[in-house]
Structure prediction request, 283 residues.
Amino acid sequence: MDTTSFLFEGAGLGLRRQLIHQFLEAQPQEVSFFEVAPENWITIGGKYGKAFRAMTDRFNFICHGLSLSLGSTDPLDKTFILEVKQFMKEHNIKLYSEHLSYCSKNGHLYDLMPIPFTSEAVSHVAERIKRVQEIMEQKIAVENVSYYAAPGQEMSEIDFFNAVVEEADCNILIDINNIYVNSVNHQYDAETFLKAIPAQRIAYAHIAGHYKVAEDFLVDTHGADIIDPVWRLLGKAYELYGVFPTLLERDFNLPPLADLLTEVNIIRSMQSTWQTQHEKRYA
Prediction:
């Protein structure tokens, strides 16, 4: 993979409002970029608005949307898309990503629901992604999501994912933890899934922790430390495709900043190791 094609590099971290002043004070060198849900920041003002501006002036940022609802049958919210576009312009944010899911049906559902894995859904979602890209005037990245049921399934998850991104001609946000969680819950091989992704479309990756309900049932929570099998899957991805930007997601049960930075540094260490391996391999 040609790393010069990425908009940024290194290890990133999701920005949570309660930590923003700590980041401004510490200015951690470990973090190469931050990610925010634009819905949570577009209208914010006051001290947090000023702090956010200070952050975007100093660091690279990504927008990771929560409410675009790519799989919905509701009309696309063009007003929201234009608001995101303007927000990104104001803060010099160069990339927008979203979930390959839906979260609305005659109003918001406040959860990320699975899109049926059907050929009809492929065409429907791909057309919506293309329309978003036309309005944004840039490619977006779509994320493989965790899911706990597959209603009306006609094709495998990976075939559906690949068909959508190919038809939409978009980039991808590859979520390593979601691959692992789904592989346990739906009994497929995580490495086989990983090997089938269109790696040339990778914009960046997520890695996170999850909650173990049972041996065969995991819940994607972003509220725990990352476990060894998920770290190993990230290493396999670097082995297969080279090093790509990778972001740590932690949405609740937030540990002290030092503990978050410990996991960010694990990402950085793995990236350094695999970058060296690839340089030796192709020297």
Summary: The chain is about 40% helix and 20% strand. The CA atoms of residues 71 and 245 lie 26 Å apart. Residues 3-281 form a domain with the TIM Barrel fold (CATH 3.20.20.150). The mean pLDDT is 94.
